[in-house]
Specification:
The chain has 513 residues and is an alpha+beta fold. Among the domains are: 80 residues, Orthogonal Bundle (Helicase, Ruva Protein, domain 3), CATH 1.10.8.20; 161 residues, Phosphatidylinositol Transfer Protein Sec14p (3-Layer(aba) Sandwich), CATH 3.40.525; 99 residues, GOLD domain (Jelly Rolls, Sandwich), CATH 2.60.120.680. It is built from 13 helices and 17 strands. It has a five-stranded mixed sheet with strand order 5-6-7-8-9. The protein has a four-stranded antiparallel sheet with strand order 10-17-12-15, with no helix packed on it. A four-stranded antiparallel sheet has the order 11-16-13-14, with no helix packed on it. Helix 8 runs parallel beside helix 9. It is elongated. Keywords: Cell cycle, Cell division, Cytoplasm, Lipid-binding, Membrane, Transport. InterPro entries: CRAL-TRIO_dom, CRAL-TRIO_dom_sf, CRAL/TRIO_N_dom, CRAL/TRIO_N_dom_sf, GOLD_dom, PATL, PATL1-6_C_GOLD. Belongs to the patellin family. It is found in: Cytoplasm; Membrane.
């Protein structure tokens, strides 16, 4: 069972393991132990730095890049799927029920007709019955004629002799599934189900059938049009892209510390159903951002923030999350490229036994975990600074009218025990200078000042020097100059470790000068 959409706070648990000596050597260990990679800092007493897992790399969806056994499995699955769609067996149970219902209705009609025939009929009634029979015969002839024409069109609905409709337009996530249609995304979708079941064709086919049945019974294809009546956008939302252009989905569980929101989401069985439906709706929105074609971006990046999250001992939360994991893992295979867990508390490790046995090595290889002190550093491995929200140490802000994600970010390394400066030129009088700056882990002395070009002018202190703690967020400030000069940002690193500084700036000209 593959857990691709593990949005669980309390239920997803990864055991801690001893650091590995070498990334290349660790590949074998990962396959054996199924553990998340962590590399020790120089100081063993401090939190570890999470590095990219070397055991997982997103596979190509180009047919030419597949191994022979993968091509063979894909072809076998396509044959099974073609036969199932044309043979009308994908939704077998439902169709049988439909036939039984139609049969019962037909019997009732026949019984009524028989009762009518037992009664003496007048000439007018006989003529009316003849007309009805004639209309029925004409309708049947038209139906048979239409059936012959429909057979020529692969994507239209065909009608068998027994009257059961065959839907050849079956699709998932907007991708047609009938292999003979030759749609670009069909192979990509089928490969997701094959990879989720380790290229076992029968297992992958059964998974696909169950997913299609679930989507049909749950009306998932129309879920984007539903008004679910509950707003959980503060807990789950899409925001930006990573370095490989995967859309990023954030799961912020700390908001459920609010008792009112917690009750709305998990208080009753009906609330939990709405919560699940809301989560599926967000997943479908995320999939809309994907390009399910060979060479396209075909998966999401998932970030789960466990800061101040409710205890997993809360029954309502545990039930809802278990349900979410089960349904998401069974019906959205291989749609998450990586799961990053940030602000991970110590109890997270202690609860390993709850879910870890159900996770495959492939799923575990996609997991990255980060303690609070390493959140920004971890996210930067996968997401550019301009796409990381400010609350996580990046430069992305809501309704930002100054910078955009298109504005580049520069980086500076400050050696231990040294000082570096960032200079922002003020080449025009009356301009407004704007800048963003952050230091990973901070613990530095920082100040801002304006230095005029005229040696006779005085330096202006913009921000007095102060010690920046490790909990500081990114700095944004502005300065309007009345003379030529430059803004100088001073960063003094008095620690025994080097520091990474990221910054960007821009100049806005004033119309009044």
């Amino acid at each position: 069972m593959t857990v691709e959409e593990t949005q669980v706070v309390a239920e997803v648990v990864i055991p801690q393991e001893e650091p590995k000596k070498d990334v290349e050597e660790s590949k074998k260990d990962v396959q054996e132990d199924c553990q998340v990679k962590e590399v020790e800092d120089d100081d063993n007493s401090k939190p570890k730095t999470v590095q990219k897992s070397s055991s997982y790399k997103e596979e190509s969806n180009f047919l030419s890049d597949l191994k022979e056994f993968e091509k063979k499995a894909l072809n076998e699955l396509k044959l099974k799927l073609e036969e199932a769609i044309v043979g009308n067996s994908l939704f077998k149970k439902e169709e049988l029920k439909k036939k039984e219902k139609e049969s019962e209705e037909e019997k009732l009609v026949n019984m009524k007709e028989t009762e009518k025939e037992k009664k003496p009929k007048k000439g007018k009634e006989v003529r009316n019955k003849c007309r009805k029979n004639l209309k029925r015969m004409k309708k049947e002839m038209r139906r048979k004629s239409q059936y012959k024409n429909v057979k020529k069109e692969k994507t239209e609905v065909a009608v068998e002799e027994n009257g059961v409709e065959i839907d050849k337009d079956i699709s998932i996530w907007g991708i047609p599934l009938l292999p003979s249609n030759g749609a670009d995304g069909t192979d990509v979708v089928l490969l997701k189900f094959l990879r989720a079941r380790e290229f076992k064709v029968n297992d992958a086919f059964e998974m696909l059938k169950k997913t299609l049945q679930w989507r049909k019974e749950s009306n998932i294809d129309s879920i984007l049009d539903e008004d679910l009546g509950v707003d959980l956008s503060s807990a789950f939302y899409m925001n930006g892209i990573d370095r490989e252009r995967h859309p990023v989905c954030y799961n912020v569980y700390g908001v459920f510390g609010n008792e009112e929101l917690y009750t709305k989401a998990f208080g009753t069985e009906e609330n939990r159903k709405q919560f699940l439906r809301w989560r599926f709706q967000l997943m479908e929105k995320g999939i809309r951002k994907l390009d399910l074609k060979p060479g396209g971006v075909t998966s999401l990046l998932q970030i789960s923030d466990l800061k101040n999250s409710p205890s997993p001992s809360k029954k309502d939360l545990r039930i809802a999350m278990n349900q979410a994991v089960g349904l998401l893992q069974d019906n959205y295979p291989e749609l998450v490229a990586r799961n990053i867990f940030i602000n991970v508390p110590f109890w997270y490790y202690a609860l390993n036994a709850l879910l870890s046995p159900f996770l495959t090595q492939r799923s575990k290889s996609k997991f990255v975990i980060a303690r609070p002190a390493k959140v920004t550093e971890t996210l930067l491995k996968y997401i550019p600074a301009e796409e990381i929200p400010a609350q996580y140490g990046g430069f992305k802000r809501e309704n930002d009218f100054e910078f955009s994600t298109e504005d580049g970010v520069s980086e500076l390394v400050i050696k231990a025990g040294s000082t570096e400066t960032v200079e922002i030129p003020a080449a025009e009088v009356g301009a407004t200078l704007i800048w963003d700056l952050t230091v990973l882990g901070w613990e530095v002395n920082y100040k801002e000042e304006f230095v005029p070009s005229d040696e006779g002018s005085y330096t202006i202190i913009i921000s007095k020097g102060k010690k920046m703690s490790s909990s500081e967020g990114p700095v944004r400030n502005t300065f309007r100059n009345n003379e030529l000069g430059k803004v100088v940002l001073n960063i003094e690193n008095s620690s025994s470790k080097k520091k990474r500084v990221m910054y960007r700036y821009m100049t806005k000209k004033s119309a009044s000068f």
